[in-house]
Amino acid sequence: MTDGARSKGGGERRGWRAATQEALYGPDGFYRRPEGPAGHFRTSVHASPLFAHAIARLLCRVDEALGRPRTLDFVDLGAGHGELVGGVLAALPADVAARARGYAVELAGRPDGLDERITWLSEPPREITGLLFANEWLDNVPVDVAEVDPAGVPRLVLVAADGTEALGEPVSGAEADWLARWWPLPAEEGLRAEIGLPRDLAWAAAVDRVARGLAVAVDYAHTADARPPFGTLTGFREGRETAPAPDGSCDITAHVALDACAAACTSADTARTPSGTARTAPDHARTPPGTACALPAARLLTQRAALHTLELTGARPPLALASKDPSAYVRALASTGEAAELTASGGLGDFGWLLQPVGIADPLP
Ligand SMILES: C[S@@+](CC[C@H](N)C(=O)[O-])C[C@H]1O[C@@H](n2cnc3c(N)ncnc32)[C@H](O)[C@@H]1O
Asked: Region Disordered: start and end of each range (predicted)?
């Protein structure tokens, strides 16, 4: 422990990862509250039903690539109140819907009145054949934060429940290796980075549950060519961005180093075991070099590009429709606005999509 281990107010300081874990998912954690994520911020899922329709089309492509299996899984990881699963099941054509199984994977409890067809789980099913989809999940997997001290050394940032910080020990071990590989910090006092190793491991463990199909993570993201110099850790409360304080009163989130997650399933450290058994982050034994069954390379693209491929373009309806069928024209215009929000530059359209096929060809070429 360093001098910074206790704050002035007497509260214990811990690394951001442990503090966030308790603040979000502890017994009184932010995500245990009844209002759910939609009570505090708007994701693509809440922005428009068009998003669920596009994901349903993606599930149909996965179904085709799998050769129309007897049962087809749709697994929403970090499902909030299960809104996306309900929307996807409702948007499927009848022949696919008859074979589809919908799973909401969530640490919070099942909301009252949820569609009975949706299975509510606290971790993904063991052998998924279909689509595993994680919208804004990885940014809520807690991470530690490093900051460069006056001597140019990256140290762990410690935080008290009120959000006040102090520097702790130098970053070492696997976390130092991760920084060196994915987010090297120049020796300039005050530069910061979020150490994404727990997210890489969590993603690899999730992908390991897919026997055949596609895993997709969608999130605020950055890649090695453009890391933010001071990191992105922030809070959200009742729709507004706020200073992050790990006291359970707000969401705590940081953008995702999605390129590191993409590499996690094809690196010897985090790849699936030869038996295909699930490996849970982060305390698993390492796969001995040479025994990992590497998956095909993952692919990164923007939400804008992904949704365009899934036939969500935001094109305006033809003007002729206005005189032929005015109410259809008004409905089509509203859809255009929603599609524009889902694909907007500087907004949801810039989100990163990480596609990891497992045993099938990439269904979004
Ligand atoms: C930002 S919300 C996104 C909710 C929803 N996917 C959406 O896009 O509206 C993140 C959700 O992930 C859940 N979550 C975080 N870690 C999880 C885990 N390991 N297993 C299941 N759910 C998790 C949280 O409880 C929270 O509901």
From this structure: 269-290
